[in-house]
Design goal:
The protein is α+β, with helices and mostly antiparallel strands. It folds into 2 domains: 141 residues, 2-Layer Sandwich (Enolase-like, domain 1); 99 residues. The chain has a 4-stranded antiparallel sheet with strand order 3-4-5-6. It has a two-stranded antiparallel ribbon with strand order 1-2. It is elongated, with a radius of gyration of 29 Å. The termini are far apart. The model has no long low-confidence stretch (mean pLDDT 90).
Amino acid sequence: MTQDTDHLSLWRQVEKTPTTAIKPADVDGQNIMTLDQIYVIQLATDLFGPAGIGWGYRIEDERYDQGAPVLDAKTGGLIAHEQTHTVRLVLWYRWQGEKGEVTQFGHTRAVYRTRNGLWKTDGEAPKKSVTDAIKKCLSLLGFAADVYGGKFDNQGYLQERQAETELEMAEDYDAALQEKRDEFKAWLEKQCEGFGMIPHPASVQKVLAIQVEQLPRRASVARLDEEAERVARERLNKAAQEAIEQLRQAKAAEKAAHQNPEEPKETTHE
């Protein structure tokens, strides 16, 4: 498949997000990962060209929507409604000589009651709504797909991206890469040795399945090629099978000992 016909070529370039571009946040009692707006804008500029030339946006609609009612705690009477600022934004971009457009909505609480019972008006609501819509539009092209797809909720993926970010930002890339490869080698050794400590064959298989699932991510962090990853996978499988065979042999020996107990030796008295 050529680049011209590979519809995921852009997506693959922008789907992974460095951990420096995200941070946890509490939004209405929910713990979420927020995405740095400058990161996606810089990435869009790097791929499409300067804003206004290679990409840009226009606002198709802007309004304030009536939000949730706020009631008096004593009487239950209506005090007021919260207000939400909304924009409908079209983002255009140039890719491989063609112009494309995507549309999304951006929302921001503009007038609302805080948890402390105080009323707040957000004077920057319009700007925040535009930023929200821009990030959502770019997400349709694959930008930060791992963030919007919830991959960072997985600790394994978060650790992988953290390691890759450290590698990308390292002053001495070669030394940092060797450190990651040494860490991979130590992990592989530990997993292979650990099979011998598992008491049941079924448990060995379960642990092996987990390790095989983790292997591609860990190999990617260490920048290992497909052949090195294949060799590591074969080593894990071999170590697991050897551990299972040892367990089976031990069980067979124990069963044979129960079936053929040694008869006590007769003692003679002079």
